[in-house]
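Why do we care about 3D structure at all? Because function follows from shape, and shape follows, mostly, from sequence. That is the central idea of this module. The next example makes it concrete: a single protein chain, its amino acid sequence, and then its structure expressed as tokens.
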Amino acid sequence: MLRKKAAKFLTLALTAVLSVSLFAGCAKSGKEGEKKAEQVIKYNLGSEPKTLDPALNSAVDGATVIVNTFVGLTRLDAKDQPVPGVAEKWDVSADGMTYKFYLRKDVKWSDGKPVTAKDFEYAWKRALAPETAAEYAYQLYYLKNAEAYNTGKGKAEDVGVKALDDYTLEVTLEYPTPYFLSLTAFPTYMPVRQDIVEKDKEKWATNPETYIGNGPFKLKEWKIKEAIILEKNPNYFDAANVKLDRIEIKMIDDQNTALTSFQQGELDFIESPPTQQIPTLLSQGVAKVYPYLGTYFYVINLTDKADQIDAAAAKALKDVRVRKALTLAIDRKALIETVTKAGQQPATSFVPSGIIMADGKDFKNKDYYKAEGDVQEAKRLLAEAGFPDGKGFPKITVMYNTSAGHQNIAQAIQAMWKENLGIDVELANQEWKVFQSTRNKKEYLIARHGWIGDYNDPMTFLDMWTSKSGQNDAGYNNPEYDKKVDAAKRESDPVKRIQLLHEAEDILMNDMPVIPLYYYVNVACIKDYVKDVHKSPLGFVYFDRAYVQK
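And the structure:
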């Protein structure tokens, strides 16, 4: 993420007969005063986003572009707490079921047209529409009758969102949701323009002329596999406080190349530098560790689609004893000390530590297995499943998106499974956009995955594995698990709610459709002249207050 030097300079006032080249760079005096250089930050996003459509995006990279080009009813402040966004205020009913949002009347789209309550109603119902096939549709199930509409059992007009007039939006929930205001800052809840989307449903979000947003920046250019250029949106309601003129977002997926570009001054801001370089970069102060509320894990395909890839491997992986053996054969402590090297913590649960609940305690209150693993128990389980010392175990393939970091992790786990269990594992990689589709379509056996919280609550890690979730890439289906998650969503007693969430995670970790590896930290290199960039533990990077000062 590179950014040219921002400096103030004076130029000499020229007369019509003087040569510009003769006097360039000289001091100037007069009424024009000082002229500022452009404020530009060059940031490396890494992989190219699969989509920038707020309803269809489900990845952090796309979301980072979206949160800088769109604003929801609320937005998150520097402490990731919801504050007024498009809505200047709101009322909440005594039972917590009805919200009435009052929109600012000075909010405009980047083409100058007013943002209205109808834009929100359209956007939310569009994300829920079965034909849209939004993976994040379940994130809107908090709305009354939203699930029924999304699953083809209800009507759009019955969904609990209604524009009472141009500047008043009424929202009715299925049950009280303490974090609902945080959800209204999430990309899936952001408004989109019906006239724009309906004109070109497939490509509207790829074309700068039709990618109409309401955020601090607007899309200027998208060069496929090269760069996304954002420029300041003069129609943004808070434009007076946006200092940057432009953000040049690069898409360099090779970590070594990105680091070299950063060191040569061609990028101002990169994330995830090469693993082997991290200890040195941290000791030199070039890189810093930022909190990240997330878990890196492997997901196992439990659907019948796995049979079409390799019937024998699919059958083995559907045996919970095999899944537990694979989990226990991994030494997570060694993995983070010798491979990832960025201060991550071994994941001994799926929900990461760092989520403080209403009782003042961290939600994570137990380890489901030892960080070092348990090879003897893993061997016992594999033998019990019919594969003593790995004999007769079918060859399985682990798939990951192209990255040296993911490759190193996969190779380490491949070696552990071979040494500890005697099983052979093949590795395969795909470009990010292709990989996301492969994983979501369940055309894999075991795949690399990672989840960053959408909001600061265990629910964001647990409801993704319900049978109706569009993010459930495992195809995991346990009715008892669904019941626990649903009961937790409806429970108003904080203590009982926490207990239900723990019980849900107990079921998940007993069934093992996922293999947690470590809790994320975010390592980034940011030039010291880049100021007030907000890196959220939820994965987003906000540039609306950023500037360059040299």
